[in-house]
Structure formats: structure tokens, C-alpha cells
Amino acid sequence: MNAPTTNRVIVDPITRIEGHLRIEAETDANGMITRASSAGTMVRGIELILRGRDPRDAWAFTQRICGVCTLVHGIASVRAVEDALKYDIPANAQLIRNLMIGAQFVHDHVMHFYHLHALDWVDVVSALKADPKATSALAQSISGYAKSSPGYFSDVQKKLKGFVEGGQLGIFANGYWGNPGYKLPPEANLMAVAHYFDALTWQRNVAQLHAIFGGKNPHPNFLVGGVPCAISIHPEGQGASSGTTSLNVEGLQKVQDIIHQMRDFVDQVYVPDTLAIASFYKDWFKLGEGTGNFMTYGDFPEKGMSDPSSFLIPSGVILNRDLSVIHPVDLNAEDQIQEYVAHSWYDYSVGKNKGLHPYVGETNLDYTGPKPPYAQLDVDQSYSWIKSPRWKGHAVEVGPLARVLMLYAKGHAQTKELVGMTLKKLDLPVTALYSTLGRTAARTLESKIIADSMQGWYDNLIANIKSGDVRTFNEKLWEPSSWPSTAKGVGYTEAPRGALAHWIIIKDGKIDNYQAVVPSTWNAGPRDAQGQEGPYEAALKGTQLHDPKQPLEILRTIHSFDPCIACAVHVTDPEGEELIKVKIR
Amino acid sequence: MNEPDTLGAGLAHSGVSRRSFLKFCTVMASLMALPPGAAQAMAAALSQAKRQSVIWLSFQECTGCVESLTRSFDPTLEQMIFEMISLDYQETLQAAAGEAAESARDEAMKSSYGKYLLIVDGSIPTKDGGVYSTVAGVSNHDRLIDAARGAAAIVAVGTCSSYGGIPHANPNPTGAVSVSDIIKDKPIMNVPGCPPIPSVIAGTLAYFVTYGKLPELDHIGRPKVFYADTIHDRCYRRPFYDQGKFAKTFDDEGARNGWCLYELGCKGPTTYNACATIKWNGGVSYPIESGHGCLGCSEPNFWDKGSFYRPLSTPLADNAHIIAAGTLGGIAAGAVAAGLSRKHQTHIGEEK
After folding, report:
1. CATH, range B50-226
2. Out of A186, A256, A499, B196, which residue is the most buried by the measure of CB atoms under 10 Å away?
3. Interchain proximity A45–B167, CB inside 8 Å
């Protein structure tokens, strides 16, 4: 191992994320990051495991890529099979999928903000010094949320005090409490801590939407050709002496209640808290931009996946912050999306510096890193299990900021209004969006857009049922004997963390090749053959660390992307040659 | 109930509602079919001044098991980490990162040596020196060995840490194994499921905190109280099976009327878990109630047992579970299997 030529700050594990991520940041003498390297340190090989299996089973396997964004791989997978087979699904199934994806967004974003990201901005210990009366006044000044009395905040504070005085700090032990980077007054800290707990209760309740449609959450069930849950409502009154599914009158009413709960929490807690907290950290609207390139695949069809013009979220690429030109994305074009492995622990038969489209992609595990236990990675060589996907050679960011920018650029009225309101309240220019907190705020704003849209999908579902349409599944192509001998397709979705697609090749009713390129691969990937950084790496460059022992600044920017690292790492080998090489250095 | 004053004082001090706390203990005691007085014993144990130290290590996992725990209603995650245990290391929830998180873990392992409960989610890759998963530069294998040394007991949460799970599915590219494949000298409880039902995770933790030991386990390390019955035995659609009423597709009259999903590939007859009784997400549903057959996700090697949509066929002789369940389901099986099946059932019958 070479001796380090600069100071290196290593953060491993990055906590409060999904999966195993390591950041190695090189700094100058003043603690400013000059180069950052993002390394995914876990691989399972799920796509290798998929080969030879029934394509209708693939959703269940791919869903286990991630239990946080728990349904997105299931959705992408059933869509990939349906695209390959030209398999239409009923309108109700489309609406139910929209509701499930929408619920995933809102649930996931709120949990990210309060349970994964908040402690980067909120000093839990400082909340002990808050005056509950002043906290109540603060809460009531920003929102009409009912839980805002002095007694409520006093109870939360008492509970927190008992916990801290007990001396067993558990998950809060060794936190960076008291770091000068924390800027909130004690009252804002107490309010945020109270909402950390409220959000835990809320998320438990709203996750029930997935359980009604999919039987459980995490990992609700999906189905190629529709959705699994038949609707137990009989417009003509038959079936009286029989049983029922969870999707009966009571279940549908529960879904409506949950949509109300989601919208209320977003409007009354999540949006006002984001604005209130952000107002104390306005310098973070200038830091952590990333690459300045953004991509979406689009999602939430009103008229099926075959009509992208009906999508709530449009697809496209924005380059160099230029919102006036939206480049079209073609997931089937071999010269658009390519994955590189120049700095990843894989090898390509065409050479390590070439890019490959997912349909012809190959993945041979080729570990060349240090033998564990190791202190430092050689970041001039390969240093991650994550590949580097590129769109026409560009490193692009995916996720909430990309979607909000796309909606904004396309003139989506609600987005323009919400972005305008946010910038006005915080007195910031539109360029403030290209930043750590811009990303975080975009996540909040799109939660509102999607939660509001859920009501429309629900109303349409109810209208269909009332008109006598209770179809949820298309039986036509269910049997593999009805399929062509070979077929290939791509299924895509907007996952909470960004554009996600699965590519499948089906041969004689079995999976011949399967490939997933996921949001955190786009965002967390290492440098490519040209030395272009991935978005995490680009966003960290130039960040000033106050104290390398307390890498709060690194966590803020990395968390603003909401990493999902189990997702980011994947393995394929379409040639059927399972090459696993290991060279321990 | 007549609790000692100290409990009341302790609860008041930490701002906990006494009623919600006792409700939790009562629910847990009844869920686990514990003897009379267990709720009070649990309440007393849980209100001790020092909470049970728990160290949670994540290996080849998807975080679904941790997410599942956050969906627990009785008790809630907040109740667990503030009142029941001290969650001294958990990467998904931990405030500190990197060195600060690692030193919190080291400190907890040192100060509670021999006493802490180790929870593991995710399988452990063993191929090629464990290079396929590292945390803080250390292989999962070495991290497990290191943390197991001072553990009083180990709970493998989820099918991956219990039996290898999806990374272990054919062709197992990284040589993934379970906790019990590596650790041989500690009490280990498997809490399988992909993910497990949150009350099952919470219930087994509460039992350990109360009694200082793991509950009674079956032959593959599962707590008997939650994994003694098949899903099929307790399924609300079971009467339709007995009447021969089956959904033939996912959207026919049978499907809409909640008929049995056996012909659509349901693995309920061969799956031992509590989904049909405890249900999911506060009891609103479970997979079969929402129209999809059981995947069998708490069984060892369930990923490699053929398509999820292929109906169960004549039971295989190499699996006593399948024989027993097949008998219960009225599928072909011999007298020996029937005997096995009844034996398996006895203690559930006694509880009722």
C-alpha cells in the first residue's frame, strides 16, 4: 500500500443509510476535500442468482435487493417482463401500482428526513435546554399541526431527559452533539426531536397501505400481468355467501384514510419543518452540487406505460444546469446508457475501460482491493463494488432534485408554485437548488406533489369499481407456453432515490440475462475511465471539514442523496461464464 | 395488578405512560403464551435501571429486517429502544458514523462483555477471504467472530442470517452462509422470514430481557411459540381448501371471494410461521389475505424450491415439514407422517 500523500479522512461505515458505504476523502492542510472516493463494500450477486429462473418469480428476488425502497425493484421487474412480452395490464392494476409507488415515495422520504438525515442538522442534546412554551410558540407559528402544546413538548423533553440521564445513549451515543456545525436553537431542536418520534408512529400507520394491496410491508407482493389482490366488491351483489380479500369496502376505506394521513403529515409537519430547519443552514444551499447533470426516466402513468405523455413525472436529461434543453432518453439505445468498470472490482472481456449497454453488459467479479482487514483503499485503482453508469458518457444525478428540476423545466404548475414558495420564504435564487439542501428540499416538495396526486388515483380506482370494472389481472399471457421463444424488454420506474431500470432477456420461458441499473449506482458510482467523478464524489469536493474526527459535513451531503447501497451493487454475466477472480493486494 | 413502587416511579421518571407499558407486557405475554404472572415479570425486568445492551450487526442484507422492526405496533420501536433495550450499535439508526460509531460499539462490547445480546441480519460471505462484504475494512466473518465472543446469546434476524437467504440461493456467488454455520459455541436463535414479522422479533427480544435466556427452540433454531404451525393450518381461507374451492387465476370469482390459493402456488402448507395469526402491519392483512400465495419466505432454501406459482406437488421425502404439512393439507402421505404431524401440533392444542 502506498503511503498517503495527502490527509485522508475515512468514514466507514457511513451510518443512517441503507447498506454498506465507505467514503475516503483526501483533504488539503486546511481540511478542505480535494478528492473524494465513494466505495460500495458489499456484493451479493442477485442477478447471477436469477439466471435460469421463471421470469414471473423475478420480482420477488429483485425486491430483496432492497428492503428500504422495498417495492421499487418489484415494480421495475414486473414491468420488464411485461415490456418483453407486450403484456397489457388492467387499468385498476395501473392505478393500484401508482398508489403503491406513491405511498413508497411519501413513506420513504419522510423516514429519510426524520430518521436518517435529521441528525445531521438537529442536535438532540441541545433540545434539553429548550423552553417547551417557546417551542410551542415556534411550532404554532409555522404550522397548524395539532400536537403543538407546551405540555406536549414538555413531555417529549422529559422523556428525552430521562433517557439521557440514564446514561445509556444507545443509537445516540458518540453523536456529534455540540459540534459548532449545529445551528438550530434549542426550541427548533426539541420540535424536530418530537417530530422524529411522531414520524415513527406515522410511518407505521401509513405502511398499512402496502399491506392492504400487497399483504405486507416491507416486501409487499406483486404480479406480472397486474396486481395480486383481487377486489372483493361485487357490483352486482353476487358472492354473498363467500369469503373476502383485504381489498374490500373496509380495506378501500382504510386506503383513503391513509392518503389523508399522508397528505396531512406532509403539509403540516414535513414541509414546514424542512423550511424551518433549512432557514438556519442557508450556506448549505451553496455547497454539495454534484455534477450539474440530471436524469429521469419518468413514472406514474395515467394511461399505461406505453403512453409516456401521460406520466406525472416526465423523462429526460438536463446537462450543465441548462433547463432550456431537455434531452430525450432511450433505454434501448445501446449508445446512451452504458456502465463502466474502470475503478470497480469487475473486469470486461472488451477491456476494463470500455462502457457496455445493459443488454450486452457483463460482470465478472474481480476483486483487486486490499486483503481485509484493511486501513485504506487504493483509490487510483479499483475501489468499489459499484459500477459507473453514464448517459452518453455524462455522469448524471438521479433522484428528487432531478425530478423536481425536470418538472420545473417542463412548466409543471404545482412544482413551479412550490419551488417559488420555497425560494421566496428562504430568500434564495433558483440556483440554490443545485446544492446539498436543494436536494433535501426537492425531496420534501416532491413528496407533496405525489401525496396530492394519490387522491386522484384513488378516486379513479373507486370510479372504476363503481362502474363495474373490478379487473386487476390480465390472464392472457400468464402461462409461459404462450410466450415467444425469445423476448427482451426493459422495465423502469422512478424510485424514491431516482431513475431505476431492469433489463431482461427471456429464452424458452426462463431468464437468460437480467440486469438492474439502479439510482444509487448512478449517484454513488466511482470515477469512470475518463476520471469523471460520480455525483457523490463531485458533491463532496471543495467541502470544508471543521473536524475530521466529526465528519458531519460529509454526512450532510452524502445523506442528501439518500444512499441505498445494497441496491447500487449488482452482478450479471450474460455470457454464462462465471468468472470470479480475486487478486488480493 | 400490584407492581412494586419502583416500577411506577421508574416509568414516571422516564415519562412513559404506565398503561401503555403494561399493555405492551400483557400483549407480549399472551402472544408468546407465557404462564400467568409473566406480564408482571416482564414489566419488572424491562423497568430495571440498566437496559439490556443489544449490538446489531448488518452483513449481506437489504435492511428489510430493520425496516420491519420499525413497523412494530406492540411494542413500538420507540418503546423498544427507550424502555426495553439499549441499542448500542445499529448502522441504519446510529447517529454517529465511522470511527465514532465503531468506538461506541467497542465500548458497549467491553462494558457489557458476556452480557450483551448480539443481533445479526444478513448472511456472511465466506468465499475468497470474505472480500465480498466488509464494514470498516473488516470482513463480515471477522466482525461476527469478534462480536460473538462477548455475547450472551445471538439472534439471527431474517432468513439470510438464519439460513443464508437470497445470497445463498443457487449458485451462491459469494459463498454466503448463516450465523450458525460459523458460530458453534453460543446459544443462537433463528427468527426467519423475509422479513420476519415485527412482533416476532420484538417478542423474542422481550423474552430474553425478561428471562435472561432464549425461548424454547425447534430443531432448526426457531422459537417454537411462533413457528409451530403452518400458515395453512391457521389460514382464514382453510375452510375453502377443505371444501375444494380454489381460485384458478388471480382475478376470477374464486380470487374475489377469497378462496384457497393452493392451485396458484401458495406455499402455506409447507411454511411454518405466524403470518396467518399475528398478521402484518398492525394486523391489517397478510400475503394470502391480499390475494398472493405464500412464498414460504421463512423456510430454509425457499428461493430454490421451484417457481412461486407452481402448485405444491407430492411431498418430498427428505423434508419432515413437507410431509407433516402435506398430511394436514390432505395431500398424499403415510401413517408415519400423520403421526409426526400430530406430535408437532400438541402444544398448540394445549394453549387453546
Report:
1. 3.40.50.700
2. A499
3. yes
